[in-house]
Amino acid sequence: MHDSHSENKFASPINKKLVLVGNPNVGKSVVFSNLTGQYATVSNYPGTTVEVFSGTANIKGERITVIDTPGVNSLIPQSEDEKVTRDILLEENMLIVQVADAKNLKRTILLTLQLIELDKPVVLVLNMMDELKQRRIEIDTLKLFKLLGIPVVEAIAIEGKGIPEIKEKIDFNQPSQLKVNYGEKIEEALAGFEQKLDISRGICLMFLAFDKGIEEYITAKCGENILVEAKKIREEVQALFSRDLGNVINEIRNKKAKEIADQAIKFRPKTIRFAQVLGDFMLKPVFGSIFLLLVIFLMYKFVGEFAAQTGVAFFEEKIFGKFINPFIITVVKLIFPAKIFQEIFIGEYGIVTMALTYAFAIVLPIISAFFLFFSLLEDSGYLPRLAILLNRSFRIIGLSGKAVIPMVLGLGCDTMATITTRTLETRKERIISTLLLALAIPCSAQLGVILGMISGLSSAALFIWIGVVSLVMLVVGFLAAKIIQGNPADFILEIPPLRIPKISNILIKTIARLEWYIKEAVPLFILGTLILFVLNKLQVLMLIEKITNPLVVGFLGLPPKATEAFLIGFLRRDYGAAGLFALSKKGMLTPNQIIVSLVTITLFVPCIAQFMVMIKERGVKTAIAITAFVFPFAFFVGGVLNFVLNYFRIKL
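== Ferrous iron transport protein B ==
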């Protein structure tokens, strides 16, 4: 954010701030973009790895700083993300805009009550009103305004509806007067705290709920002696209850939230729709598993067969083979008479003949299909149902169903998915999910290439690849859950309605992801090719192949040329997979070798971008430890698979 945070994260800012707060996945970022005109500054919150977006908006003639905070379910933090949001809200001179999913009013109001108790002006934005109407539900916003004492705005942020009303309702001088009655014993303590500590009712409640972060805040604001006195009062109040004070406070607040929500919601006549019935069935273990297999089968057909065979053949043989490469070869030979310069562009390790051909002729058709398919699943509302379906299985490996989201996102990009692990609530879950992302989750481009290679083999090959990778994930996750201390967190996840995705949204997401691929991946493809070119000219590549010969040829049973795929796989996983794809198309890999090589490169070390993010998110020691484990383990599993296939004389 700004330099003011670097000295004291609880310091009062000079300028007015508008802080966007809300549960996860309610559209805060869309509201932020609409308010700030897409401009954003990204920086880590002091002392954390959590990124915070900030920008400026012109509201009622004033330039106001707008901050988009990480999603929270409560102001008593359970994760680093939630702690950052809570700490930002402890600052002064701000207005809170709570962005909410209109479909989940009780959960929304539970957070609203906590925000109001901070004694700051709050505006409640009921987003996704279009989806609320699809459920045939109405909210009486006027009644909600009277019950909460804060402005309430209806919005469909993705269409820009409600944004002018948000700006109109902003008033930095009107906090709500609503007070939840927590009972005589707690109210007496609150009155004493507010007078002695000169802090808001909400902060006093957090302190009563034994929030250690608030103890730090009180010490910074009031001094160590005052904190000691406050702790004594808290212990006296806790002694009056048989249950934890935090639970008592939360139950009373929950009851109040339900009471307000019940008064504000108006139901229309309920109709059972096909989408609702199908969505419910997806959560059933048997039907949900069958549906998941159907999704995998369709993805295999679309990505593995159509894109990887028909699409790649068209681009590689016709577009590049007949037009682009012959034209470039002619041009390069005219411009560069010297053979060494020609080889840089059109040789065996040429920028055009290898890097760009791999990037655009092999990988691009495959990931285009995958991104389309993934966006379809994303917009349909299926992914949260998948998380709930797999929750029980994930418990075996020390994770809650919430960890399914980073794992599924890893199929798009493991680097981005590693960043999303910060939303998991415990250190144990964050480490295990980072390990499994580095080990067993292939990114979109790699997965597409893998499916393309397997599609030319028997169905047994597909089941062996899925079986080995899944078994590795299960065993490693299970052992990691036993070794790493801690318990998985509770699993709470909103289930959105099933919906027919908008083609325009799918295309926009796919194009954005392809743009990212071209900017992120293609330069690394070129860099990797240049490295191979230099290593080959210096005859270092031959030396590496000779040194690794016992491992790659002897243990894995692969040709020496496969070493190149593993070398460039560290730069980009998909580049390594594309190298194996090229070898298989040239007939240099047998079906058995294809499966062994694919299992090995799937489990192979994370690409350099993911490794850097692992350092940022988990620290240098953890990142190095994970990589040091993954590298030899991938070759061990590949070698064991090669041995088993040969020992039992299995021919794929």
